[in-house]
Amino acid sequence: MSLFSSIEKTIERGFRHWTEKMFGPADSDDLLVVHRAILEAVEAKVQIVARGKRVFPHAHLTVTLISADADRRALYETAFAEDDRLEHDIKQALEAVDCQIPRGFSVEVKTSETGEGQFSIEASAHAKPAAATSGRLVITKGKADKSEYALDKARVNIGRMAEVTDSEQRVVRRNDVVFLDGDDANATVSRKHAHIRLEDGAYRICDDASEYGTRVFRDGRAIDVPPGDRRGERLRPGDEVFFGRASARFEQ
């Protein structure tokens, strides 16, 4: 019998409910298979020591989800990394079976175009070092729900409206940097305009095929960010980024 059997169904119900609402039943089914396999892989790393005490010897896990398809990788990022969902579920499973976990335990979710299987897990006995001061966006033109935003996630979505829905009113994307309706500059911000990705310590701005484009102003010159290009443009402190006619300054 699975060590997590007593809690796994509860965790899966919550995960299924959320993913069905976000992505629909078909994608939810696929994500649930991956989610279950990750929990099984984590369970296999639990150790039994003296008097049957359970311990998890790894302070940090890096879970890399693998797909050659860019849309599938974006789906993985949203489903598993957003709001530290996978880390929460793993902690809940370990704590439910009275498994001792190291102080500062954390789970990092990444994606990769290449690799074997659907995912890989790298375990470390040491907690992840504290991150350097994260970047931030300071709104300079247009109306947003905040005056500045911390870039403290692996991916930060930028667009008009907090939630983007499809024709069946299913949520297909949540924006972290939200430009509001009712402002002339904001009218040039697409609902799914752009995103900023933190990769190897660098922030990169990517245009998500927006209608009015994304460009970076640096040292008096404009740099167009190619629409749909996954690599995007690396940001430097002081860059002013235009989303259509709305803009924000990148600081770090």
Commentary on this structure:
A hairpin with a 6-residue loop joins β7 and β8 (148-151). The model has no long low-confidence stretch (mean pLDDT 90). The chain has two domains: 5-124, hypothetical protein PF0899 fold, CATH 3.30.2320; 135-251, Sandwich (Tumour Suppressor Smad4). The chain has four helices and 19 strands. The protein has a six-stranded antiparallel beta sheet with strand order 8-7-19-18-15-16, with no helix packed on it. A five-stranded mixed beta sheet has the order 12-9-13-14-17, with no helix packed on it. It is an alpha+beta fold and 252 residues long.
Residue ranges: pLDDT <50 for 5 or more in a row?
none
What is the average of the pLDDT values?
A: 90
What is the fold named in CATH at topology level of the largest domain? hypothetical protein PF0899 fold
By DSSP, the count of extended strands is 19
> What is the correct CATH architecture of the largest domain?
2-Layer Sandwich
- Helix share, percent: 10-25%
C-alpha Rg (nearest Å) = 20 Å
Q: Tell me, what is the CATH class of the largest domain?
A: Alpha Beta
What structural class is derived from the secondary structure elements? alpha+beta
Can you describe this structure in just a few lines?
This protein is α+β, with helices and mostly antiparallel strands and 252 residues long. The chain has helices at residues 5-23, 25-43, 70-81, 85-96, and strands at 47-48, 54-55, 60-66, 99-100, 106-112, 119-124, 135-141, 148-151, 155-160, 163-165, 171-174, 177-179, 194-199, 202-207, 214-218, 221-225, 233-234, 240-243, 246-251.
